[in-house]
Specification:
Order of helices and strands: HHEEHHHHHHHHHHH
Strand order of the largest sheet: 1-2
Radius of gyration: 27 Å
Low-confidence stretches: none
Strand content: under 5%
Mean pLDDT: 79
Oligomer: single chain
Largest sheet: 2 strands, antiparallel
Shape: elongated
Distance between the termini: 80 Å
Structural class: mainly alpha
């Protein structure tokens, strides 16, 4: 009875979702429709922030360069650069922006990332458009059977990074501004103006992160199907099955499994190579964002040390509420770094699992064509050698978190030692 109720709920959800989907995309599977929705939102935000000069042409059914969008993006980038450059200049000259204002400095440091993103993304628009048209994403997705539990688990990372983290940063910024600058009248629009550079600078990174989440989902589904093929092929070569089935049946079955492996090999090649190629369009923005996060986190913790040292040494007041808000704000960039490292490491593990599953296949009594397909698939996996290294500087995996954490600790030790030396030398 419970099974029928769950099945009924799924059927009702599928019907309600189909009504919201445009008619031309209703033949897509549910997970493909979810990916299409996320992809549409991402492209809209890219155009809204002015970093993408193209659009999707429904008449030609491909991405194209658009002059109207280009004019809007150039205007948007110019206004953005002039406005924030003048705003930073005014606040620095008037004394409103000092070293102790960690959150404002972090937000304004991202203005540099935004301007560099504009300069680096606009010239490669034609390459990005050609790349988008060459990726057969929905062809691959519609060929795979992906459970909704896998889809929701994969998309939960995107929800945390793209929605929850900016929302927490926005709330922390409101609390910080009202506490640190009570003499100023803060409005929601003023907070949005301060927060906007963080959103724009993270947009390119969010594009790569979303693509990596989809690639991880596809490779996980490929491994799930590959596991079933491994079990069946090994079962067909057991002594009991060799006595039970005739050679013709086993040959036909191995040919069917070989066809399935061929399709999986093609999908794996598309997913692995395209996800690596897409990193070339976003690696500069990713490295700059990591650098700004490193500087911002180091500056924030050093300012907290300065406040604590002034409280105990110079007996100055210490605002615990402001320190907690600042700690929450600075934890968000570190959390985003942890999420990126985690999903990158999961992708690496899934690609390694593909090679391990291929090695588990017993080829002693297999059909000759099945043996050739397995060896060809294994050669593709070995040749691709999946690694994510933006600008060739560092590899995206779990060691990235340790590297950033150790760098922050190292810089803090140097700054704290210099400050203590200066304090006690003056006395």
């Amino acid at each position: 009875m419970r099974f029928l109720r769950r099945l009924t709920r799924r059927f009702r959800f599928h019907l309600s979702w189909q009504r919201l989907t445009p008619p031309r995309f209703r033949h897509y599977k549910v997970h493909s429709q979810l990916v299409l929705l996320c992809l549409s939102v991402t492209i809209f935000l890219n155009i809204l922030y002015g970093v993408y000069l193209g659009r999707f042409s429904f008449r030609r059914k491909k991405f194209v360069f658009c002059k109207i969008v280009t004019a809007y993006c150039v205007t948007m980038g110019t206004i953005f650069g002039i406005f924030y450059t003048w705003r930073i200049y005014e606040e620095v000259t008037s004394g409103q922006l000092t070293r102790s204002h960690t959150i404002e400095i972090y937000c304004y440091m991202n203005v540099c990332v935004c301007l560099i993103n504009y300069v680096t993304q606009w010239p490669i628009t034609f390459r990005i458009v050609r790349f988008q048209n060459s990726v057969k994403l929905f062809t691959v997705l519609n060929q795979l059977e992906i459970s909704m539990s896998m889809v929701w688990k994969a998309f939960s990372y995107s929800i945390i990074k793209m929605i929850v983290c900016p929302l927490v940063e926005y709330i922390s910024l409101i609390l910080y501004q009202r506490r640190a600058h009570p003499e100023l009248h803060w409005t929601n629009m003023a907070t949005v103006k301060t927060m906007l550079p963080v959103l724009v600078s993270n947009q390119i990174n969010n594009c790569f992160f979303g693509g990596l989440v989809i690639a991880n989902l596809i490779v996980a589904a490929i491994n799930r199907t590959l596991m079933a093929i491994v079990k069946e092929s090994n079962m067909l070569q057991t002594p009991a099955q060799l006595d039970l089935h005739k050679p013709y049946y086993r040959m036909r079955r191995f040919c069917e499994l070989a066809d399935g492996l061929d399709e999986l090999a093609n999908m794996y090649s598309i997913c692995a190579t395209r996800s690596k190629d897409y990193l070339r369009f976003t690696d500069c923005s990713m490295v700059l964002s990591m650098l700004m996060n490193l500087i911002g986190i180091t500056l924030g913790f050093f300012n907290q040390y300065m406040a604590i040292a002034d409280h105990y040494i110079n007996e100055e007041p210490f605002d615990l509420y402001l320190a907690v808000v600042l700690l929450i704000f600075l934890s968000i960039p570190f959390l985003e770094l942890v999420i990126v490292a985690r999903i990158s490491n999961q992708m690496l593990l899934e690609t390694q699992k593909t090679g391990e599953l291929l090695q588990r296949i017993n080829l002693q009594h297999a059909d000759i064509r099945f043996k050739q397909v397995v060896k060809a698939f294994w050669l593709r996996v070995s040749t691709i050698n999946y690694k994510l290294m933006p600008l060739g500087l560092l590899e995206l995996n779990t060691t990235l978190v340790n590297t950033v954490f150790s760098s922050v600790i190292g810089f803090l030790l140097i700054l704290v030692q210099s400050d203590l030396t200066l304090r006690f030398s003056l006395k």
